């Protein structure tokens, strides 16, 4: 039985929430200070979504399994996103805060606000909560688990913040060696921005000093199906005058997959994991029998 919140210290409440998150399947969890989002655009900070916000509680997990990374069939990863599971856990933590401790707890929506901006960047929250650090390829990487999905909830409950990592996870030592020898890293070599890809950057003294990312190009590859695919297919269907061709579009495997991915992963689904597939962070965990 949980003690009344007013008699518990912030450290104890945080300990209970971390244990609750771990029991619910989180591989990592942490707390960011709600006032530490100054680098985020105005209108997209925790207090803009929940007035009086004090903390942002972040949970991470639901990552692809080792076998998912091993499958040579690219379409497998395209249709097997598990990001909704971490969002479900985030909601359970939010319920826990409201019911057990009597503070507001608002889950950051996993969808996007106007201009395709996140309501509050969950990736930034994960960094500020010390769950990992932003990689040159974009995703926040955790040192022990590599790529994973995150969910963040904003709360008026004051909790001790964990703060960002002092020692970034990316670039991994193997990537620094590769950079020193070849001027690239596994992810940059997979999707080089100057050769039709989306990623570029620079590493100096073992630290990322520059990143380049072609978001528009990546979107056309990483969100081929899901909502953008649906919008594209819908437009093509509406514009097609020929009945037979219209039926072909509607029954095509591309459109079917779009519908699949939209129902499979309610809010978002990436279809291209190639930059993460080659990332060495937490790679031993991918090598099973
Ligand atoms: S997700 Fe795919 S397209 Fe996007 S940066 Fe990574 S490898 Fe390139
Ligand atoms: S492969 Fe992974 S660790 Fe290496 S530079 Fe790219 S994102 Fe960073």
Task: Describe the structure in your own words.
A hairpin with a 2-residue loop joins strand 8 and strand 9. The protein is of the alpha+beta class and 289 residues long. Among the domains are: 5-155, no CATH class; 224-264, no CATH class. The chain has 13 helices and nine strands. A four-stranded antiparallel sheet has the order 1-2-7-3, sandwiched between helices. Strands 4-5-6 form a three-stranded antiparallel sheet, with helices on one face. Strands 8-9 form a two-stranded antiparallel sheet. One iron/sulfur cluster binds at residues 137, 190-191, 197-199, 218, 221-222, 272, 274-275.
Summarize this structure as a short list of keywords or feature phrases.
289 residues; alpha+beta; four-stranded antiparallel β-sheet; three-stranded antiparallel β-sheet; 13 helices; binds iron/sulfur cluster
